[in-house]
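Researcher: Next entry: Protein N-acetyltransferase, RimJ/RimL family (Micromonospora krabiensis).
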Amino acid sequence: MTPEVIESHGVRLRPFRPEDAADVTVGCADPLTQRFLPGLPTPYTEADARRWITEGAPAAWAAGGAAYAIADPATDRLLGTVGLSHADAYRGQAEIGYWVMPAARGRGVAVAATRALSGYALTTGTVRLELLTREENTASQRVALAAGFRFEGVRRSAGPSRDGGRHDLLAWVRVADDPAGPTARRLPDLPDGRLTDGVVTLRRLAPEDADVMYELHSRPEVVANQAPPVPPERAAVERRCRVSESGWLLGEIARMLILDAATGAPAGSCGLSVSDPRAGEGTIGYALLPDWRGRGYASRAVRLIAGWAFGPAGFARLAAGTVPENVASHRVLERVGFRREGLLRGRLPGPAGTRADDLVFGLLPEEFADEGRRDGLGEPR
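Model: Predicted structure:
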């Protein structure tokens, strides 16, 4: 590939120029850029920028890749960079990567540049493009999805860290015959970032929720209803909160915090996992802190999830597994319209190597609608 200027999707991709050095310095010295591109020098100086422009970018081209400046078509001012690396002519593949200036973030620059370069590459001989992201780099995962890349799997310990350690990378792939446009998501974002009925509010779990999640899921009565019934490690809870958005984007599980709508106080947690994507089935789970139990909050939360699941998320069926002795949870599900479907003997891991039964409930869209009409146009009881 030669340094041909690409004008597409509202951005200009052009070769670097000496006058870009100051902007390259600002972009590469930015803490977020440094965090997710550990191969950059630190501290990053203007000398490093000039070296990239005069040596690094030409070397990328010479190796069969690409190194473009992303520029504003109106001003030609640098907005970021996008390029291709690890090109393999025999396999017809390459890896695409980018960074965006801090002042240009949130404007769709990365998506536009990724679409522009990937579209050009896939029509000029490249067959397969990979985009690799850290699990917590959800901004890049959103770029991948918006640019038509599909999640393919986890590359274990594929990325080096600045401290000498290793971390996993998520592989997103686009091939030449993939349809144009964004990749469809199994789990769409919540409307306006939340679900609410005026009493209970649900929002996506976030890194700052680790304290309340650890408190909730370490309680003996909550642990007893988990499989296996083992208290969580603090590090595992922190990681769950840290990568919650990634699990959502991957279409695996939508984890949410239950809040009191009036005060914003955390009341518990809930979630919807994609248990059978081909069948359109999801599985619901939930737990409340003691002060909020017996007030209908669990039923309200489950009803909100079900409405979102059968509506924007397009699920065809919801299931919930419970410990047979958890009568309070059974009542929650039945209030929303779930029906008992059967006892799966020895399905779950129990304490000390034993097995536990799983009492399964199910809900169909028409049953949820009927329950809502009986319940006052969908208002919680």
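Model: Note for the record: DSSP finds twelve helices and 16 strands in the chain.
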